[in-house]
């Protein structure tokens, strides 16, 4: 029986109507490629919402971006203002409705600039995510120590100001470094951790890097919110994040298992599994569906699945439920019949 990873306890931080940490469900984030002032952002926000994004982040490059947050409809998703270099943009973003700000205090200039952001965030009940990416730490040789020292310094400034609504993140383009650094940070702090492998790459290669890096940490019980960084459409980041969480039984929805197809196949497993994955991506039923190519990898090997099909002579399939054969299906009946059964599980 699969074991759900035991979560490491962290404080809870409220972002608008969403809670990060404190044992709450792991939240999925993404970031728009369009600017806040760009009308193209509307389509991205709609796609993110439909895919199940919990929190959306936007780049705030100038005053116009900060001001636009107030009038933009984020479809109920809490919005995080991503700030670099100019602390005044953080203040303006908070004052114009940002639900959270992401800053790297090392590029905000003098310490008092960061303190001003803290005071503004506290006044508006807005949390701060403190990021310490490996590319911005002081000591390029001893990265781990430098990251720890930087976060201790930044957290110390917040705590000295009586501010505790903090989320921490440590990212690297190196999977192994990401894992190592986050394990270290989780031993030092009890603030919620935002996980991600930065600059991970394309949809294909980047998904693998994120699955290994984020997945290894989640399997350790580390992490309260995640962003899968990909050079792809933002909704693809959310879709990949859901798959990572679902693989660890940390996210509901339809889970699909399918055999590695071979010369014994009597059904097109690749096409069936892909079509079923698309058709069930937004279904919340917490069930496992098996798509198997033949009787060898059929009901026997997939008996732990709630539902499944195994290829039969002629390109059709047999439908089984928890290993028990139910009926024979023609090729055209396979997907509709599975969806009908899935719908009955959802009710």
User: For the CA atoms, what is the radius of gyration?
Assistant: 23 Å
What would the average pLDDT be, to the nearest integer? Answer: 91
| Count of distinct structural domains | 2
CATH topology of the largest domain: TIM Barrel
How far is the first residue's CA from the last residue's CA?
Answer: 25 Å
Q: Return the CATH architecture of the largest domain.
A: Alpha-Beta Barrel
Largest sheet: 8 strands, parallel, barrel
Q: Nutshell version of this structure?
A:
This protein is of the alpha/beta class and 347 residues long.
Summarize the SSE layout with pairings.
Elements: E1 12-15, E2 18-21, E3 27-31, H1 41-51, E4 55-59, H2 63-68, E5 79-82, H3 87-95, E6 100-103, H4 111-123, E7 128-131, H5 143-160, E8 166-169, H6 175-188, E9 193-195, H7 203-219, E10 225-227, H8 234-247, E11 255-258, H9 269-280, E12 288-292, E13 307-311, E14 317-321, E15 324-329, H10 334-346
Parallel strand pairs: 3-4, 3-10, 4-5, 5-6, 6-7, 7-8, 8-9, 9-10, 11-12, 12-13
Antiparallel strand pairs: 1-2, 13-14, 14-15
Helix pairs in contact: 1-8, 3-4, 6-7, 7-8
Description:
This protein has 347 residues and is α/β, with parallel strands linked by helices. It has two domains: 12-247, TIM Barrel (Alpha-Beta Barrel); 255-346, Sulfite Reductase Hemoprotein, domain 1 (2-Layer Sandwich), CATH 3.30.413. It is 37% helix and 19% strand. The chain is built from ten helices and 15 strands. The chain has an eight-stranded parallel barrel. Strands 11-12-13-14-15 form a five-stranded mixed beta sheet, covered by helices on one side. Helix 1 packs parallel to helix 8 and helix 3 (87-95) runs parallel beside helix 4. It is elongated. The chain starts with 11 loop residues before the first strand and ends with a helix. The mean pLDDT is 91.
